[in-house]
Write a structure and sequence with these properties.
alpha/beta; 2 domains; seven-stranded mixed β-sheet; seven-stranded antiparallel β-sheet; elongated; binds adenosine-5'-diphosphate; binds magnesium ion
Length: 311
């Protein structure tokens, strides 16, 4: 490959909104056979909103009831210190119910799981239902059913547990359903990647049911969905694919994708959404200026065209 041709290819990519960190990246793009797509913020917009109609709380002995403004304000306060898109959805809905959210003390963020802290003197935890169970607050049956209903339609569920007033530990009391929107271009882009001979894989920390729902919407096979992956383990999923011979292009946006993007770059490519976090952008070889998977398709086409001409 002549340097001039590679520069021309790099320029052509740039005009399509694909910023390449060095001309050699075009060569790696040409060899890809697998594209690992992060779900939240990559395949979807990553702008989540609370679905009140699918959010419930328990006040025994009654059956489940709609979420009350008081409960929403409590979760919103707890989540206000978190930067996760799930937290933003809850906090923004809660701000609509009150002039000022109560303060949080002893706040802690548990990566890929949820948050804990003290609101109005009460210790509380909000996060993945499975994580709350690990903390000793499994969901009662009536709420478990609500979780299945919400997740099957693609929602992410935030469960809330609060410390019992008389010190008998955490108790799960509510579930909040949060929904993301698919990027409209994602199904078409996934189909194009397939037409180019690439295998799309969906990778997410989110629950299996929501992941399967999104995969079906964009046309990714059930066998190519890897869900409930902790942030630290996304890297290992990419390394495993590589160990089995794949040349992986990984597309992501989050802090939790950075290690996986860098790993993909060792024998393939890391691609970051331009709308993503700085850490992801730094770890990647390619930046997609338009936050859109069509740019991945464009990158593959340009690299193939460029390297075909100069061979
Ligand atoms: P993703 O791969 O979808 O970006 P993460 O690894 O960041 O996901 O998080 C995995 C899951 O952990 C989320 O889908 C959510 O259920 C839960 N979670 C993470 N952070 C929070 C939070 N601040 N509040 C509630 N749940 C959270
Ligand atoms: Mg993401």
């Amino acid at each position: 490959a002549t340097p001039t041709a590679l520069l021309v290819g790099t320029g052509r990519a740039a005009r399509l909104g694909v910023v390449i960190k060095g001309p050699e990246v075009l060569e790696s793009t040409r060899t890809l056979d697998t594209v690992v797509l992060d779900k939240t913020g990559t395949v979807t917009q990553g702008r989540m909103t609370l679905d009140l109609e699918a959010s419930w709380q328990l006040r025994p002995p009654q059956p489940r009831q709609p979420l009350s403004p008081e409960t929403l304000v409590l979760v919103g306060a707890l989540e206000s210190a978190s930067e996760h898109p799930v937290a933003a959805a809850v906090t923004s809905a809660a701000r609509g119910c009150t002039d000022a959210l109560p303060a949080v003390e002893d706040f802690r963020s548990h990566e890929g799981q949820g948050v804990t802290g003290r609101v109005a003197e009460r210790y509380a935890a909000a996060g993945r239902p499975g994580w709350l169970a690990q903390l000793g607050a499994p969901l009662p049956e009536a709420l478990r059913q609500a979780v299945v209903e919400a997740e099957e339609t693609g929602a992410t569920v935030v469960a809330l547990a609060v410390e019992h007033p008389h010190g008998t530990g955490l108790e799960a009391v509510a579930v909040l359903a949060v929904r993301d929107t698919l990027r409209p271009s994602s199904p078409g882009a996934v189909a194009s990647l397939r037409d180019l001979g690439l295998r799309p894989v969906l990778l997410t920390g989110d629950n299996a049911r929501a992941a399967t729902h999104v995969a079906a919407q964009v046309g990714i096979a059930q066998d190519d969905v890897v869900s409930e992956v902790l942030p630290a383990d996304k890297h290992d999923v990419v390394a495993d694919l590589q160990a089995r011979g794949a040349v992986v292009g990984m597309v992501g946006d989050g802090v939790n994708d950075a290690a996986a993007l860098a790993q993909a770059g060792t024998r393939g490519l890391g691609m970051a959404m331009g709308s993503g976090t700085d850490v992801a952008i730094e770890a990647a070889d390619i930046i997609l200026v338009r936050p859109d998977l069509d740019a991945v398709v464009a990158a593959v086409r340009v690299s193939r065209a460029t390297l075909r001409v100069i061979r």
